[in-house]
Amino acid sequence: MSSTPSAQYRLTIRVRIGDEQATLGLLTAAIGMAGGIVAAVDLVDVDGAESVRDIVVDASGQEHWSHILSAIERVAGAEVIDTTDRTFLLHVGGKLEQHNKHPLKSRDDLSMVYTPGVARVCLAIAEDDQRAFQYTIKRNTVAVVSDGTAVLGLGNIGPRAAMPVMEGKCCLFKEFAGVDAFPICLQTTDAAEIVRTVEAISPAFGGINLEDISAPRCFEIEERLKERLDIPVFHDDQHGTAVVVMAALLNAVKLTARRLEDLSVMIIGLGAAGIAVTKILLAAGVRDIIGADSRGTLHVGREDYLDGSMNALKRWFCESTNPEGRAGAPAEVLDGEDLLIGVSGAQALPVEALSRMNRDGMVFAMANPIPEVLPEAAAPYVRIVATGRSDYPNQINNVLCFPGIFRGALDVLAPAITEDMKMAAARAIADVVDESELRDDYIIPSVFNRDVAPAVAAAVAEQARAAGIARAGQEVGFAHGDVITGSSVAGGSTSVPIGEGRA
């Protein structure tokens, strides 16, 4: 279980208290002595000297709950009536629901929203399918697609068990960027079938966010969908991680007076995230990169490279990095590195090995829930530490990236998210932290910083325009009459056929 109480193990404990004045203080003290943190105490009922209270407690795990409950039961005059797991309660019935944008209060409303008036809109789209971006939800919707084979921290748990994660992702899209996202969990792990299915449902969506699909299939699925679809396809486990890592690095090198071109980088973990991080580092000008998987560092002299059993992406990695052919476990080849990036597993590196890194070393240890090295253990050896966890400074979290990236792409109806758009997103995230605010423990903005998503969206949209792939602003045709032109499609165009009123 986790060592630190947190909201993910928040429990509401309903307690009957016999002597209100004497017992309540003893009760909260007992919870504290048992290691729980009291978040709230609410009065449910009172009857003379007896009361019923709901006590909200943060614990460090489910096993910890039993210790807290035992401590409460030992308080004279206190009786536990019921307990509620607040995290499960939040998920009851799912975390999403649909709301209509326009009320249906009359026959006239019905005749426009549905038959017969809807037929006119259908025919207009049939004449020009690009009108779907104007007259359907397509212009603001993203499908969050998963097969449940690589759910963060859980692995291959299947599509049904992956649904709460995908729903959560959709909540983040809406909360931070106003994008309507829908969880699509598929009962297949066949790459070709996933591609066909996503292609078949794509008319309803303005973008596709691939999520928690295991490597190496995720690479093939993304590439094939990018070839077949004219809407953005983005595998967040790869590119979202890469963008936020780059954002953190842009600020870290400012603090340590380094240049990207001069960095020596080691990457532990070469799945989807590790490969994508490598690609964005190379694109940014980093040249000295060494990567390691469970068998040690990758290089063209490694046995599985030579015998042809290594997969294509790792072969690419061997040919693009580690020109000196340094071999061994990560701890054995960490000498002289400036930056360690971990996208592997818990405590994958002995912390003492960090002492061999260059002065003012940087560590981005992003395994969840337990990073490759714990920040408190790494602190004596390096200057900057970032993790994927919210309870440490410098949280490298994809929510800083994907809502704004899709918002920007949807706003200009971009058909794809290019490498330049990803780099623009990274710079925008980094720039949210003003140089006067930069500190070793503040190289990346908070996930709750509401300036991030708009800044990313604006940067992505501008890059799409500069590249000539922005389709918004082009006239969208209309059926049956002349057109009154208004603002761009993505901004909510007011273009309508004359005589039909404003859209």
Word description of this protein:
This protein is an alpha/beta fold. The chain has helices spanning 20-33, 62-73, 86-91, 107-113, 118-127, 132-135, 159-177, 191-201, 217-228, 236-255, 272-283, 303-306, 312-320, 375-378, 402-411, 419-432, 452-467, and strands spanning 6-17, 37-47, 50-59, 78-85, 141-146, 180-185, 207-210, 233-235, 264-268, 288-293, 296-297, 339-342, 362-365, 384-387, 483-484, 496-497. It is built from 17 helices and 16 strands. α15 crosses α17. The termini are far apart. Mean pLDDT is 91; it is low at 474-503.
Which key phrases capture this entry?
16 strands, disordered C terminus, 6-stranded mixed beta sheet, 17 helices, alpha/beta, single chain, 503 residues, 4-stranded antiparallel beta sheet
Short description:
The chain is α/β, with parallel strands linked by helices.
